[in-house]
Amino acid sequence: LRSKRVDAIILAGSKFVEMRPKDNAYITEAASELPVMLVNGYLEGDNIYSTVCDDHAAMYGAAAQLLQAGRKRILYLYTSYSYSGVNKLEGYKDALKAYGMEPCDELIRQCPKDISAAKELLLSLHGQGLEFDAVMTSDDSLAVGTVKYAHASGISIPDELNIIGYNNSILSQCTDPEITSIDSKVEALCTTTINTLMGVFSGVNVPRPEYKDELHFAAEEAQMESLMDAVRAIRNRRAEMNVPPSKKAKVLILTEKKDTFSAGAGFFPKLAYASEIELIDAVPADAAKMASVVT
Question: How far is residue 115's CA from residue 173's CA, in Å, rounded to a whole number?
Answer without folding.
Answer: 14
